[in-house]
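Researcher: Let's do a round of design. I'm pasting the structure tokens now; please hold your answer until I've finished.
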């Protein structure tokens, strides 16, 4: 597949960005993708890399203008746990960066925007089981507050200015190619690394805390499928629910023990337990399935097999 326009991925060195950028380059060609991150340039990338702080509006405009950028994937953010440690910075990064990109789209300088939301928009008063697309949103973290505000901004720019903005409410994402970046569901990645390194893991959540999760391959596939959908099929411009499966630390440990019988887990809940307790147990994503054909491919067992197999190759 080819494209006549260029794609900018901001936050390309993060957990999602690492895999999504590679998938975009594979889909559209290395010359069509520019990766950008506040971190220094990674080595040996097949596509171009720019060092960019999402709050540097002037440099953002320069990159867009000089490279005929027509799609931006804005992934840069402070996640839930890190956001609680620095709420002011979380607000600035998560909100100002989105506003800068939406303004570029409003001015006609880019054609389509992808911006990720999160199940962090939900809260203690949200229905926990099969949380619907339209429901109570009462986040209790700065990260969740910025994601909810961002959803409303996306919907506003879409209806008021015709901005073609797409968004997914990701559950906790699990992948083997990059470490997580300070979220409440980081345990679901750490547990696999520790299983292979130490055959033991101490989890910062309680054993039976069930949370919605998604394997990274499904998250990337959902993102590409949404962004390739015709604008007329995208009825939700705030953010679509997407679901993979739900699992607790205890259930993940059990799945690992099917492959590694000597693996052990202990529990030492910290401040992230309160955040997790406010999130749903499971998500209903019927609108995404209906509007643009979303369908996950991985369950807990399939993800566990793939994670352990690929991480073992890296050790």
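Researcher: That's everything. Go ahead.
Model: Designed sequence:
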């Amino acid at each position: 597949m080819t494209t006549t326009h260029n794609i900018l991925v901001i936050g390309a060195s993060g957990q999602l960005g690492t895999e999504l950028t590679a998938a975009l380059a594979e889909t559209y060609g290395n010359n069509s993708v520019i990766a950008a991150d506040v971190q220094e340039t990674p080595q040996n990338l097949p596509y171009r890399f720019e060092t960019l702080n999402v709050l540097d509006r002037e440099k953002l405009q320069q990159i867009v203008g000089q490279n005929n950028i027509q799609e931006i994937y804005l992934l840069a953010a402070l996640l839930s746990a890190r956001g609680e440690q620095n709420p002011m910075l979380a607000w600035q990064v998560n909100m100002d960066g989105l506003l800068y990109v939406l303004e570029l789209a409003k001015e006609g300088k880019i054609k389509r925007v992808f911006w990720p939301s999160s199940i962090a928009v939900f809260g203690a008063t949200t229905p926990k089981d099969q949380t619907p697309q339209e429901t109570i949103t009462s986040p209790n973290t700065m990260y969740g507050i910025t994601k909810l505000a961002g959803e409303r901004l996306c919907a506003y720019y879409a209806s008021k200015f015709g901005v073609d903005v797409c968004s997914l409410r990701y559950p906790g994402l699990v992948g083997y190619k990059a470490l997580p970046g300070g979220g409440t569901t980081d345990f679901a990645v750490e547990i696999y690394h520790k299983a292979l390194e130490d055959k033991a893991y101490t989890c910062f959540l309680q054993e039976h805390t069930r949370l919605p999760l998604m394997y990274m391959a499904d998250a990337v596939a959902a993102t590409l499928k949404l962004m390739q959908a015709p604008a007329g099929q995208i009825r939700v411009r705030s953010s679509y629910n997407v679901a993979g499966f739900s699992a607790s630390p205890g259930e993940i440990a059990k799945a690992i023990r099917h492959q590694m019988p000597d693996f052990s887990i202990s529990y030492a809940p910290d401040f992230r337990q309160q955040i997790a307790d406010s999130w749903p147990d499971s998500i209903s994503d019927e609108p995404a399935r209906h509007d643009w054909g979303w369908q996950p491919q991985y369950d807990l067992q399939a993800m566990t097999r793939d994670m352990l197999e690929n991480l073992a190759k890296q050790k």
